[in-house]
Amino acid sequence: TRISGGDIDPVAVRVAKANVRANRTLRPIPMRVSAGPFETADTVVANILARPLMAMAPRLAPSARRTLILSGLRVADRRRIEAASCPAASSADSARHTREQEERQGATCR
Q1: How far apart are CA 94 and CA 71, in angstroms?
Q2: In this structure, what are the phi and psi dihedrals at residue 42, rounded to the nearest 5 degrees?
Q3: Pairing of strands 31-33, 5-7
Q4: Which member of 12, 51, 56, 69 has the greatest number of CB atoms within 10 A?
Q5: In Å, how far are 10, 20, 38, 45, 83 from 41, measured between CA atoms?
Q6: Which residues pair with 68 in a beta bridge?
């Protein structure tokens, strides 16, 4: 399994590198200062605010071969982010979610 990471903030990258060293990972985990996505992967994790996330959605969503995990977002932004990240998701699928389900789980692209 190959893991890499990055951030636009050099301080965040420096802290992430220190965490990799402190956790004594079996393999090196490359970190870089850059706006993602960094490469195509089975799973892509993004902890980004809604507005920048929607701007990078056309590049970010296709970089995840299987799973795209988006965190740090408000429930109120879910539908806009889902539309930007999952353009093929049907509105019928979205309509099946209740407000309570939305708060417990994220969007699913089909």
Answers
A1: 19
A2: -60, -45
A3: parallel
A4: 56
A5: 23, 20, 9, 10, 21
A6: 44
The Cα-based distances of 48 to 57, 99, 100, 102 in angstroms read: 11, 22, 23, 19
pLDDT of 75-94, one tens digit each? 898 888 888 877 655 344 44
Long-range contacts of 81-87 (CB under 8 A, 24+ apart): 81/50, 81/53, 81/54, 81/57, 81/107, 82/107, 82/109, 84/53, 84/54, 84/57, 84/58, 85/53, 85/57, 85/60, 85/61, 85/109, 86/61, 86/110
Closest CA to 37 of 72, 1, 65, 75: 65
Cα angle for residues 109, 85, 41 (degrees, 5° grid) = 80
**Measured distance CA(44)–CA(97) in Å, rounded:** 24
